[in-house]
Design brief:
The structure is a single chain. This protein has about 425 residues and is of the alpha/beta class. The protein has 2 domains: about 210 residues, 3-Layer(aba) Sandwich (Rossmann fold), CATH 3.40.50; about 150 residues, Phosphofructokinase domain (Rossmann fold). The chain is built from 12 helices and 13 strands. It has a 5-stranded mixed β-sheet, sandwiched between helices. Strand 1, helix 1 and strand 2 form a beta-alpha-beta unit. Helix 1 runs parallel beside helix 11. It is elongated.
Protein backbone atom coordinates (compact mmCIF):
# COMPACT_ATOMS: atom_id res chain seq x y z
CA UNK A 1 0.00 0.00 0.00
CA UNK A 2 1.26 3.53 -0.75
CA UNK A 3 2.51 5.57 2.20
CA UNK A 4 0.52 8.57 3.40
CA UNK A 5 1.87 12.13 3.34
CA UNK A 6 2.01 14.78 6.06
CA UNK A 7 1.74 18.44 5.02
CA UNK A 8 2.00 21.43 7.35
CA UNK A 9 2.17 25.21 7.13
CA UNK A 10 4.63 27.11 9.29
CA UNK A 11 5.41 30.62 10.42
CA UNK A 12 3.72 33.75 9.13
CA UNK A 13 1.23 32.90 6.42
CA UNK A 14 1.00 34.62 3.03
CA UNK A 15 -1.46 35.47 0.30
CA UNK A 16 -0.31 32.43 -1.68
CA UNK A 17 0.73 29.71 0.79
CA UNK A 18 -2.59 27.98 0.18
CA UNK A 19 -1.73 27.88 -3.53
CA UNK A 20 1.26 25.75 -2.55
CA UNK A 21 -1.05 23.56 -0.44
CA UNK A 22 -3.29 23.21 -3.47
CA UNK A 23 -0.29 22.19 -5.57
CA UNK A 24 0.79 19.57 -3.02
CA UNK A 25 -2.65 18.02 -2.53
CA UNK A 26 -3.67 18.02 -6.18
CA UNK A 27 -0.34 16.49 -7.25
CA UNK A 28 -0.55 13.87 -4.49
CA UNK A 29 -4.04 12.89 -5.66
CA UNK A 30 -2.69 12.35 -9.16
CA UNK A 31 -0.07 9.98 -7.72
CA UNK A 32 -2.49 7.76 -5.82
CA UNK A 33 -0.42 4.71 -6.74
CA UNK A 34 2.51 6.06 -4.69
CA UNK A 35 0.92 8.42 -2.15
CA UNK A 36 -2.09 7.46 -0.06
CA UNK A 37 -3.87 10.17 1.88
CA UNK A 38 -2.51 13.64 2.59
CA UNK A 39 -2.83 14.47 6.27
CA UNK A 40 -2.39 18.13 7.20
CA UNK A 41 -1.08 19.22 10.56
CA UNK A 42 -3.56 21.39 12.39
CA UNK A 43 -1.54 24.48 13.33
CA UNK A 44 1.64 23.33 11.68
CA UNK A 45 4.16 20.99 13.27
CA UNK A 46 2.19 21.19 16.50
CA UNK A 47 -0.45 19.10 14.73
CA UNK A 48 2.13 16.35 14.22
CA UNK A 49 3.34 16.45 17.82
CA UNK A 50 -0.16 16.36 19.28
CA UNK A 51 -1.45 13.91 16.64
CA UNK A 52 -3.99 16.52 15.57
CA UNK A 53 -4.17 15.57 11.90
CA UNK A 54 -6.61 16.72 9.22
CA UNK A 55 -7.80 14.30 6.55
CA UNK A 56 -7.66 16.30 3.32
CA UNK A 57 -9.24 13.42 1.40
CA UNK A 58 -12.55 14.53 2.93
CA UNK A 59 -12.36 17.77 0.93
CA UNK A 60 -13.88 17.98 -2.55
CA UNK A 61 -11.82 18.70 -5.65
CA UNK A 62 -13.55 22.09 -5.87
CA UNK A 63 -12.64 23.00 -2.27
CA UNK A 64 -9.00 22.07 -2.78
CA UNK A 65 -8.91 23.99 -6.07
CA UNK A 66 -10.32 27.05 -4.28
CA UNK A 67 -7.27 27.10 -2.00
CA UNK A 68 -5.37 28.60 -4.92
CA UNK A 69 -7.44 31.77 -4.50
CA UNK A 70 -7.64 31.87 -0.69
CA UNK A 71 -5.18 33.76 1.55
CA UNK A 72 -3.85 32.74 4.99
CA UNK A 73 -3.15 29.19 6.14
CA UNK A 74 -6.08 26.87 5.49
CA UNK A 75 -4.91 24.34 8.09
CA UNK A 76 -3.52 26.76 10.66
CA UNK A 77 0.12 27.65 11.18
CA UNK A 78 2.45 28.07 14.14
CA UNK A 79 5.72 29.53 15.26
CA UNK A 80 7.31 26.52 16.87
CA UNK A 81 10.90 25.55 16.25
CA UNK A 82 12.14 22.06 17.04
CA UNK A 83 15.47 22.07 18.84
CA UNK A 84 18.28 19.73 17.90
CA UNK A 85 17.86 15.99 18.44
CA UNK A 86 20.38 16.15 21.27
CA UNK A 87 18.44 18.94 23.02
CA UNK A 88 14.95 17.53 22.64
CA UNK A 89 14.91 13.87 21.63
CA UNK A 90 11.44 13.50 23.16
CA UNK A 91 9.77 15.59 20.45
CA UNK A 92 11.51 13.80 17.62
CA UNK A 93 10.60 10.42 19.08
CA UNK A 94 7.01 11.63 19.17
CA UNK A 95 7.11 12.70 15.52
CA UNK A 96 8.30 9.26 14.51
CA UNK A 97 5.60 7.62 16.64
CA UNK A 98 2.91 9.68 14.91
CA UNK A 99 4.34 9.04 11.46
CA UNK A 100 4.51 5.30 12.15
CA UNK A 101 1.01 5.17 13.63
CA UNK A 102 -0.46 6.82 10.54
CA UNK A 103 1.80 5.14 7.98
CA UNK A 104 3.33 8.44 6.86
CA UNK A 105 6.28 8.23 4.50
CA UNK A 106 6.31 11.77 3.07
CA UNK A 107 6.82 15.01 4.98
CA UNK A 108 6.06 18.28 3.18
CA UNK A 109 6.80 21.36 5.30
CA UNK A 110 5.68 24.69 3.85
CA UNK A 111 7.53 27.59 5.43
CA UNK A 112 10.61 29.78 5.66
CA UNK A 113 14.13 29.36 6.99
CA UNK A 114 13.21 27.89 10.36
CA UNK A 115 10.89 25.42 8.62
CA UNK A 116 13.69 24.38 6.29
CA UNK A 117 15.77 23.68 9.39
CA UNK A 118 12.98 21.54 10.89
CA UNK A 119 12.54 19.66 7.62
CA UNK A 120 16.27 19.00 7.46
CA UNK A 121 16.28 17.66 11.04
CA UNK A 122 13.40 15.31 10.27
CA UNK A 123 15.27 13.91 7.26
CA UNK A 124 18.38 13.41 9.39
CA UNK A 125 16.38 11.70 12.12
CA UNK A 126 14.73 9.43 9.59
CA UNK A 127 18.14 8.24 8.43
CA UNK A 128 19.39 7.86 11.99
CA UNK A 129 16.43 5.75 13.10
CA UNK A 130 16.10 3.81 9.89
CA UNK A 131 12.48 4.85 9.45
CA UNK A 132 12.01 6.07 5.85
CA UNK A 133 10.61 9.60 5.63
CA UNK A 134 11.11 11.70 2.53
CA UNK A 135 11.30 15.26 3.82
CA UNK A 136 10.69 17.99 1.24
CA UNK A 137 10.62 21.67 2.10
CA UNK A 138 8.12 23.87 0.25
CA UNK A 139 9.47 27.41 0.15
CA UNK A 140 7.41 30.23 1.62
CA UNK A 141 8.39 33.58 3.05
CA UNK A 142 7.36 37.14 2.40
CA UNK A 143 10.85 38.19 3.54
CA UNK A 144 12.35 36.64 0.36
CA UNK A 145 15.42 35.65 2.34
CA UNK A 146 15.84 31.94 1.52
CA UNK A 147 19.12 31.12 -0.23
CA UNK A 148 19.61 29.43 -3.62
CA UNK A 149 16.08 30.14 -4.86
CA UNK A 150 15.83 33.31 -6.97
CA UNK A 151 12.76 34.38 -4.99
CA UNK A 152 10.27 32.98 -2.50
CA UNK A 153 6.52 32.43 -2.95
CA UNK A 154 4.69 35.03 -0.90
CA UNK A 155 7.18 37.78 -1.64
CA UNK A 156 5.92 38.80 -5.09
CA UNK A 157 2.42 39.51 -3.80
CA UNK A 158 3.67 41.49 -0.80
CA UNK A 159 5.97 43.45 -3.11
CA UNK A 160 3.03 44.24 -5.37
CA UNK A 161 0.90 45.33 -2.42
CA UNK A 162 3.63 47.61 -1.02
CA UNK A 163 4.49 49.11 -4.41
CA UNK A 164 0.83 49.86 -5.16
CA UNK A 165 0.09 51.16 -1.65
CA UNK A 166 3.14 53.42 -1.63
CA UNK A 167 2.17 54.89 -4.99
CA UNK A 168 -1.47 55.43 -4.03
CA UNK A 169 -0.64 56.95 -0.63
CA UNK A 170 1.95 59.20 -2.28
CA UNK A 171 -0.69 60.54 -4.66
CA UNK A 172 -2.83 61.28 -1.60
CA UNK A 173 -0.05 63.09 0.25
CA UNK A 174 0.87 65.08 -2.84
CA UNK A 175 -2.69 66.39 -3.08
CA UNK A 176 -2.64 67.57 0.57
CA UNK A 177 0.94 68.79 0.87
CA UNK A 178 0.35 72.49 0.30
CA UNK A 179 -1.63 73.05 3.49
CA UNK A 180 -1.49 69.78 5.39
CA UNK A 181 0.45 66.51 5.44
CA UNK A 182 3.91 66.50 3.88
CA UNK A 183 5.24 63.16 5.09
CA UNK A 184 3.81 59.66 4.81
CA UNK A 185 5.68 56.80 6.50
CA UNK A 186 4.81 53.17 5.82
CA UNK A 187 6.40 50.37 7.82
CA UNK A 188 6.88 47.03 6.08
CA UNK A 189 8.05 43.59 7.14
CA UNK A 190 11.64 42.45 6.79
CA UNK A 191 13.70 41.68 9.89
CA UNK A 192 17.16 41.45 8.38
CA UNK A 193 16.61 41.67 4.63
CA UNK A 194 15.18 44.73 2.87
CA UNK A 195 13.45 43.03 -0.05
CA UNK A 196 9.96 44.23 0.87
CA UNK A 197 11.16 47.75 1.61
CA UNK A 198 12.85 47.79 -1.79
CA UNK A 199 9.47 47.13 -3.42
CA UNK A 200 8.33 50.55 -2.20
CA UNK A 201 10.82 51.99 -4.66
CA UNK A 202 8.70 50.67 -7.53
CA UNK A 203 6.11 53.33 -6.66
CA UNK A 204 8.24 55.75 -8.65
CA UNK A 205 9.05 55.22 -12.30
CA UNK A 206 9.45 57.17 -15.54
CA UNK A 207 5.79 58.17 -15.50
CA UNK A 208 5.41 58.65 -11.74
CA UNK A 209 7.95 61.11 -10.35
CA UNK A 210 7.37 60.28 -6.69
CA UNK A 211 9.85 61.13 -3.90
CA UNK A 212 10.45 57.90 -1.97
CA UNK A 213 13.06 57.41 0.75
CA UNK A 214 13.72 53.83 1.87
CA UNK A 215 15.27 52.64 5.14
CA UNK A 216 16.85 49.20 4.67
CA UNK A 217 18.01 46.76 7.37
CA UNK A 218 21.24 46.37 5.40
CA UNK A 219 22.11 50.08 5.74
CA UNK A 220 22.89 51.57 9.16
CA UNK A 221 20.43 54.31 10.02
CA UNK A 222 22.22 57.68 9.94
CA UNK A 223 19.79 60.16 11.42
CA UNK A 224 21.38 63.34 10.13
CA UNK A 225 21.80 62.02 6.58
CA UNK A 226 18.20 60.83 6.67
CA UNK A 227 16.89 64.24 7.76
CA UNK A 228 18.91 65.90 4.99
CA UNK A 229 17.49 63.53 2.41
CA UNK A 230 13.89 64.05 3.54
CA UNK A 231 14.31 67.83 3.62
CA UNK A 232 15.76 67.82 0.11
CA UNK A 233 12.76 65.85 -1.12
CA UNK A 234 10.25 68.15 0.53
CA UNK A 235 12.08 71.21 -0.77
CA UNK A 236 11.82 69.83 -4.30
CA UNK A 237 8.40 68.11 -4.28
CA UNK A 238 6.65 69.66 -1.27
CA UNK A 239 6.15 66.17 0.18
CA UNK A 240 7.93 62.84 0.70
CA UNK A 241 7.03 59.17 1.29
CA UNK A 242 9.22 57.05 3.54
CA UNK A 243 9.26 53.24 3.40
CA UNK A 244 10.88 51.83 6.53
CA UNK A 245 11.68 48.19 7.09
CA UNK A 246 10.82 46.87 10.54
CA UNK A 247 14.44 45.72 10.62
CA UNK A 248 16.00 49.17 10.19
CA UNK A 249 18.82 49.53 12.73
CA UNK A 250 20.85 52.13 14.56
CA UNK A 251 24.63 52.00 14.07
CA UNK A 252 24.96 50.03 17.33
CA UNK A 253 22.74 47.27 15.94
CA UNK A 254 19.57 48.06 17.87
CA UNK A 255 16.36 47.93 15.86
CA UNK A 256 14.48 51.20 15.55
CA UNK A 257 11.35 49.16 16.27
CA UNK A 258 12.67 46.86 19.01
CA UNK A 259 10.19 46.40 21.87
CA UNK A 260 12.42 44.43 24.24
CA UNK A 261 10.43 41.20 23.81
CA UNK A 262 11.11 38.04 21.80
CA UNK A 263 9.01 35.61 19.77
CA UNK A 264 8.89 31.82 19.96
CA UNK A 265 12.01 31.50 17.80
CA UNK A 266 14.00 33.87 20.03
CA UNK A 267 13.84 36.72 17.52
CA UNK A 268 13.41 40.28 18.74
CA UNK A 269 9.73 41.24 18.60
CA UNK A 270 9.48 44.18 16.21
CA UNK A 271 6.81 46.74 15.43
CA UNK A 272 6.74 50.50 15.73
CA UNK A 273 9.43 51.78 13.36
CA UNK A 274 6.94 53.96 11.48
CA UNK A 275 5.85 56.13 14.44
CA UNK A 276 9.46 56.34 15.62
CA UNK A 277 10.61 57.65 12.24
CA UNK A 278 7.58 59.93 11.78
CA UNK A 279 8.12 61.57 15.15
CA UNK A 280 11.83 62.02 14.43
CA UNK A 281 10.93 63.94 11.28
CA UNK A 282 8.36 66.03 13.12
CA UNK A 283 10.79 66.92 15.91
CA UNK A 284 13.69 67.72 13.58
CA UNK A 285 11.95 69.30 10.59
CA UNK A 286 8.48 70.21 11.82
CA UNK A 287 6.61 68.52 8.98
CA UNK A 288 3.10 67.23 9.54
CA UNK A 289 2.92 63.49 8.96
CA UNK A 290 0.79 60.39 8.74
CA UNK A 291 2.10 56.87 9.21
CA UNK A 292 0.86 53.33 8.70
CA UNK A 293 2.03 49.82 9.50
CA UNK A 294 1.23 47.40 6.67
CA UNK A 295 1.46 44.44 9.08
CA UNK A 296 -0.93 41.56 8.26
CA UNK A 297 -2.52 43.49 5.39
CA UNK A 298 0.59 43.19 3.23
CA UNK A 299 0.73 39.42 3.49
CA UNK A 300 -3.04 38.77 3.45
CA UNK A 301 -3.89 40.85 0.37
CA UNK A 302 -4.92 38.05 -1.98
CA UNK A 303 -7.19 40.47 -3.87
CA UNK A 304 -4.14 42.09 -5.45
CA UNK A 305 -1.78 39.11 -5.56
CA UNK A 306 0.86 38.85 -8.26
CA UNK A 307 -0.03 36.23 -10.85
CA UNK A 308 3.64 35.34 -11.10
CA UNK A 309 3.66 34.68 -7.36
CA UNK A 310 0.51 32.54 -7.43
CA UNK A 311 1.81 30.48 -10.33
CA UNK A 312 5.16 29.91 -8.62
CA UNK A 313 3.60 29.03 -5.27
CA UNK A 314 1.42 26.39 -6.92
CA UNK A 315 4.27 25.09 -9.07
CA UNK A 316 6.62 24.61 -6.11
CA UNK A 317 3.97 22.72 -4.15
CA UNK A 318 3.43 20.47 -7.13
CA UNK A 319 7.20 20.09 -7.68
CA UNK A 320 7.65 18.99 -4.05
CA UNK A 321 5.37 15.99 -4.67
CA UNK A 322 6.99 15.18 -8.00
CA UNK A 323 10.40 15.22 -6.31
CA UNK A 324 9.15 12.92 -3.57
CA UNK A 325 7.74 10.32 -5.95
CA UNK A 326 11.08 10.39 -7.81
CA UNK A 327 12.70 9.41 -4.54
CA UNK A 328 14.34 12.74 -3.66
CA UNK A 329 14.83 13.61 0.00
CA UNK A 330 16.06 16.55 2.09
CA UNK A 331 15.60 19.06 -0.72
CA UNK A 332 13.67 22.24 -1.46
CA UNK A 333 12.30 22.91 -4.94
CA UNK A 334 13.75 26.30 -5.86
CA UNK A 335 13.24 28.88 -8.59
CA UNK A 336 16.05 29.54 -11.05
CA UNK A 337 15.67 32.71 -13.12
CA UNK A 338 16.59 32.24 -16.76
CA UNK A 339 15.93 35.77 -18.03
CA UNK A 340 14.35 39.09 -16.98
CA UNK A 341 12.79 40.16 -20.26
CA UNK A 342 11.02 38.07 -21.22
CA UNK A 343 10.74 36.72 -17.70
CA UNK A 344 11.51 33.00 -17.71
CA UNK A 345 12.17 30.61 -14.83
CA UNK A 346 12.52 26.93 -14.04
CA UNK A 347 12.49 24.75 -10.93
CA UNK A 348 15.64 23.15 -9.53
CA UNK A 349 16.35 21.13 -6.37
CA UNK A 350 18.24 22.80 -3.54
CA UNK A 351 19.75 20.59 -0.80
CA UNK A 352 18.33 21.44 2.62
CA UNK A 353 21.82 21.32 4.10
CA UNK A 354 22.50 24.52 2.11
CA UNK A 355 19.13 26.16 2.85
CA UNK A 356 18.57 25.65 6.58
CA UNK A 357 19.63 28.58 8.79
CA UNK A 358 20.93 30.67 5.87
CA UNK A 359 19.52 34.15 5.16
CA UNK A 360 19.81 35.86 1.77
CA UNK A 361 20.28 39.60 2.14
CA UNK A 362 19.74 42.34 -0.40
CA UNK A 363 22.85 42.66 -2.58
CA UNK A 364 24.52 46.03 -2.05
CA UNK A 365 24.34 46.65 -5.79
CA UNK A 366 20.51 46.64 -5.47
CA UNK A 367 20.65 49.64 -3.11
CA UNK A 368 21.46 53.12 -4.39
CA UNK A 369 24.81 54.62 -3.50
CA UNK A 370 23.27 56.98 -0.92
CA UNK A 371 21.50 54.02 0.74
CA UNK A 372 17.99 55.47 0.42
CA UNK A 373 16.72 53.97 -2.85
CA UNK A 374 16.93 51.10 -5.33
CA UNK A 375 19.10 50.72 -8.41
CA UNK A 376 18.09 49.71 -11.91
CA UNK A 377 19.43 46.22 -11.21
CA UNK A 378 17.03 45.93 -8.29
CA UNK A 379 14.15 47.22 -10.39
CA UNK A 380 14.97 44.66 -13.10
CA UNK A 381 14.87 41.93 -10.45
CA UNK A 382 11.61 43.07 -8.79
CA UNK A 383 9.41 44.03 -11.74
CA UNK A 384 8.87 40.48 -13.11
CA UNK A 385 7.82 39.25 -9.67
CA UNK A 386 4.84 41.61 -9.40
CA UNK A 387 3.54 41.00 -12.91
CA UNK A 388 -0.01 39.95 -13.64
CA UNK A 389 -3.26 39.89 -11.72
CA UNK A 390 -4.92 36.71 -10.51
CA UNK A 391 -8.11 37.95 -8.92
CA UNK A 392 -10.14 35.58 -6.76
CA UNK A 393 -13.80 35.06 -7.68
CA UNK A 394 -16.09 37.75 -6.25
CA UNK A 395 -19.59 37.49 -4.83
CA UNK A 396 -21.70 40.41 -3.63
CA UNK A 397 -18.75 42.70 -4.13
CA UNK A 398 -16.43 40.65 -1.89
CA UNK A 399 -13.79 38.04 -2.69
CA UNK A 400 -15.09 34.52 -2.28
CA UNK A 401 -12.66 32.42 -0.25
CA UNK A 402 -12.94 28.83 0.92
CA UNK A 403 -13.02 27.52 4.49
CA UNK A 404 -12.25 23.81 4.58
CA UNK A 405 -14.06 21.27 6.75
CA UNK A 406 -10.73 20.19 8.26
CA UNK A 407 -12.08 16.88 9.57
CA UNK A 408 -9.82 15.28 12.17
CA UNK A 409 -8.16 11.90 11.78
CA UNK A 410 -8.88 9.48 14.63
CA UNK A 411 -6.05 9.47 17.17
CA UNK A 412 -4.15 6.26 17.89
CA UNK A 413 -1.62 7.37 20.49
CA UNK A 414 -1.64 8.70 24.08
CA UNK A 415 -1.83 12.48 24.53
CA UNK A 416 1.41 14.46 24.29
CA UNK A 417 2.19 17.73 26.07
CA UNK A 418 4.33 20.33 24.31
Amino acid sequence: MPKNAFYAQSGGVTAVINASACGVIEAARRHGDKIGKVYAGRNGIIGALTEDLIDTSQESEAAIAALRYTPSGAFGSCRYKLKSLEENKREYDRLMEVFKAHDIGYFFYNGGGDSADTCHKVSQLSEKLGFPIQAIHVAKTVDNDLPITDNCPGFGSVAKYIAVSTREASYDVRSMAKTSTKIFVIEVMGRHAGWIAAAGGLAADAENDIPVVILFPEIEFDQERFFARVKAMVDKYDYCSVVVSEGAKWPDGRFLAEQGTRDAFGHAQLGGAAPVVANMIKDALGYKYHWAVADYMQRAARHIASKTDVDQAYALGQAAVEAAVRGENAIMPAIKRISNDPYEWEIISAPLSEVANVEKMMPREFISEDGFGITQACRDYLVPLIQGEDYPPYENGMPKYVTLKNEAVAKKLPAFEI
